[in-house]
Design brief:
ABC transporter transmembrane region fold, two-stranded antiparallel ribbon, transmembrane helix, transmembrane, mainly alpha, 344 residues, 2 strands
Length: 344
């Protein structure tokens, strides 16, 4: 099944304390993408106007403009990267400390029903995975989405018919990614579960290694670890196979737009409805439109990983309300009003 919208909403809700930094980063991203998409428009003017007129003043002015645009784009990109990396590191620190404080406040009964290794994986590995997805992954997704929107707008503005035909393959790519998301989600969830099993077993056995050695159980415990490791390997390999079946197909379909672009552009030029400069601009935008296909096909993969990792962390974030032990035996009432017995 696809990634749960409720899980994703809760995960992105964790970024609320950093909304100013993220918002500033988004504004810088918009400016950076705008500067990145501007150069092919310069090519149109140079090829269609400067070259026929042999006007080197016109051409030189546009070359200087290109240099300025490249410089602005790099400055905005560097500033954005610094802000987002800072927000990502702060998010990781805050979430890890908050999870630890939450777990530290649980009762002894809660820890008796949980696996130590599983909890460790939630506080360490899952938090790192969430940072990659929510901060770095989201930044990549937004950047590619803005590039797509900008390129489609320019395509249609330059030549409406060719613009529409060139973007059709991307609709097919979107449908393929949606289907992939429905297929791969169970594999990711199973892999995270197996990783929790393996982490729990290793943590428990290492903490009790003297007992294992005292009863000469090294071989049996090694066999258990190997069995869980192979189960994890099988689930991860299943996800890899699904991914490597879906992604090449999506890349192939997406790149058919290059064929449409070249063939349709040549036909329109011969028909007098397009210019050589316009076709060169189309080709220049092609790397922004079809080049990020690897990133586009990873969007669904990022969401599935976020749901798999975030689901475990959110379950760790919202365990049963703790009933703290008091010095004297008796009964207590927790803040939600449910009674719980205490051992003396």
């Amino acid at each position: 099944m696809p990634a749960s919208p409720s899980v994703l909403r809760r995960l992105y809700g964790l970024l609320t304390p950093y909304r100013r930094t993220v918002g500033t980063g988004l504004l810088l991203l918009i400016g950076s993408v705008a500067a990145e998409l501007y150069p092919p428009l310069v090519w149109i003017r140079v090829v269609d106007q400067g070259l026929p007129a042999r006007d080197w003043t016109f051409i030189g002015g546009h070359l200087a403009l290109l240099v300025a645009v490249f410089g602005v784009q790099q400055l905005l990109s560097a500033w954005r990267g610094l802000l987002l990396e800072q927000a990502g590191q702060q998010f990781t620190l805050d979430l890890r400390l908050a999870l630890y404080r939450k777990l530290q406040g649980q009762s002894a009964a809660y820890f008796e029903s949980q696996r130590t290794g599983d909890l460790i994986a939630r506080v360490t590995g899952d938090v790192d995975a969430l940072q990659d997805v929510l901060v770095r992954g989201t930044d990549a997704v937004l950047a590619n989405a803005l590039r797509l929107i900008g390129v489609v707008a320019v395509f249609v503005a330059l030549q409406p018919l060719l613009g529409v035909l060139t973007t059709l393959p991307m609709l097919a790519v979107g449908a393929m990614l949606w289907r992939y998301g429905r297929t791969v989600q169970p594999a990711y969830r199973a892999a995270r579960a197996r990783l929790g099993d393996l982490s729990a077993l290793v943590a428990d056995r290492i903490s009790g290694i003297r007992v294992v050695q005292g009863f000469a159980r090294e071989g049996a415990e090694a066999a258990r670890v190997e069995a869980l490791g192979r189960a994890l390997y099988a689930e991860q390999l299943r996800a890899v196979r699904l991914r490597n079946r879906a992604f090449p197909r999506a890349r192939f379909v997406g790149n058919l737009g290059n064929v449409i672009m070249l063939g349709g552009g040549a036909w329109l030029i011969l028909a007098g409805q397009f210019t050589l400069g316009g076709l060169l601009a189309y080709r220049g935008y092609g790397r922004y439109f079809y080049g990020p296909i690897d990133d586009l096909v990873n969007i669904g993969d990022l969401l599935q990983r976020a749901a798999a990792s975030g689901g475990g962390s959110l379950r760790c974030w919202t365990p049963p309300w703790p009933c703290r032990t008091v010095p004297a035996p008796g009964r207590c009432r927790n803040p939600r009003g449910a009674k719980c017995a205490l051992k003396g």
